[in-house]
TrEMBL record:
Sections of the chain in a coiled coil: none
UniProt cross-references to InterPro entries, sorted A to Z: Acyl_CoA_acyltransferase (IPR016181), GNAT_dom (IPR000182), Rv0428c-like_C (IPR056935)
Protein name as annotated: N-acetyltransferase
Record domain N-acetyltransferase: where: 169-303
Amino acid sequence: MVRRIVGTRNNRPLYSDALGELIEVSETDLTLATKNGPLRVPLDEIHRAKRVPPSRRPNAADVVALELASNETWPAPVQDRLGEWLLRAADGWTGRANSALPIGDPDRPLEAAIDAIERWYAERGQPPLINTPLPLAAPVGAALDARGWGARPLTLVQTAPLPAIASTIEVDLATTPTEGWLRVAGARKSGLPDAAVHILTAVPEVRFAHVYGQPGDLIAIGRGAVTADRRWLGLSLIEVVPEARRRGLAQQVIGALSSWAAELGVPRAFLQVEERNTAAVALYTRLGFTTHHAYLTRTPPPP
């Protein structure tokens, strides 16, 4: 943690704290990998700095394992490798399935690896995207900053023991999504190409939650996918139609999917949510979810 001087008021210094992983020190400044991306701090602005105990954050192996579990439960139809890095494409449907995941060794210098990513996506007619788990991929983020890359809003990867939620409504769980389920999901995600159906269904143990209102209209959906080792339930597409919100339906969907996973012996769940989606973050907090780590989806500079 670094406490820096950011100004003065009434002849007294004003301070701001920054928490992150130290990734570079030069003669003039230092660089931290923070949850919002790399932060460069001039040395003459630093008031004090201290080491935060590692137990306050997940280790690199835990971040890698959860990122791979996420990839397993949201499988892009086209996947390739750049050393240990993953390259994924799915007709542009969702950033997660259409981005490189830079974890491990790309088997070449960092700048050459980024060049290879740009070529791989150009060959498929897609813009290159790179997901950078923080602070694990901070060096990648710093290299992208130098190239002028931007970033989408910060995404939180949250985990919790499976929530035990008393059922107050009927939630139908199916092994395949109905046409109504796909319509609701498509409305949220701007359509459903063939690649989307692959992502949703190409997991051996998956359930699609349906909640019906009157007169039989679908009013809430959700998806739960279990990893092959049965260590994780990945929750996604928890969606309630606008006219049925604020009735606790999302919580009921999560409860039904969690009960199904618990019967398989799965101990924990994870989900991904944008930090700026405060309503969803508040719901997940009430259900016991905490942020394991975060990532930025990095976007290329304008042509």
